[in-house]
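Input structure tokens:
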């Protein structure tokens, strides 16, 4: 069940747009911010508030890859998996993360620290390869930087 505070925040987002549905992503983000991910129950609750069916909202949530429909680690690593990064050394970064975190895409480390996801272009192609952890964007990456970057996230 959504909290009163969550409902209040969602209603505020709805007040800013012409139709309740138009606030659906912001509503999901509010819930995800509090709970880490969007469970089926949360999805149903949000759908009711934004006047959508759960299936309709789920298709939006699934399309939008920053909405997590499964539990994730404390930190989500989004590794850019698009053309400029492919050209500029993406594979080396990906393989290093796979090996050193002991996970593949879509998985979470055993200690719950990191989830690793591929992501379409992070919008910084001129500084490829790139990845994001939470709100932090790392550009011009080299494998040598990864240990230090990862150590910032406990
Ligand atoms: S292709 Fe990686 S940031 Fe654009």
């Amino acid at each position: 069940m959504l909290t009163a505070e969550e409902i209040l925040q969602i209603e505020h987002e709805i007040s800013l747009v012409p139709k309740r549905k138009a606030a659906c992503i912001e509503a999901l983000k509010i819930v995800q911010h509090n709970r880490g991910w969007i469970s089926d129950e949360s999805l149903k609750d949000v759908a009711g508030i934004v006047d959508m069916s759960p299936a309709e909202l789920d298709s939006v949530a699934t399309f939008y890859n920053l909405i997590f429909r499964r539990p994730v680690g404390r930190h989500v690593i989004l590794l850019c998996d698009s053309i400029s990064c492919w050209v500029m050394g993406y594979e080396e970064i990906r393989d290093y993360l796979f090996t050193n975190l002991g996970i593949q895409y879509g998985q979470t480390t055993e200690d719950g620290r990191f989830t690793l996801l591929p992501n379409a272009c992070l919008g910084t192609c001129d500084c490829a390869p790139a990845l994001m952890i939470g709100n932090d964007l790392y550009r011009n990456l080299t494998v040598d930087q990864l240990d230090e970057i990862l150590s910032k996230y406990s």
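The radius of gyration is 17 Å. DSSP finds seven helices and four strands in the chain.
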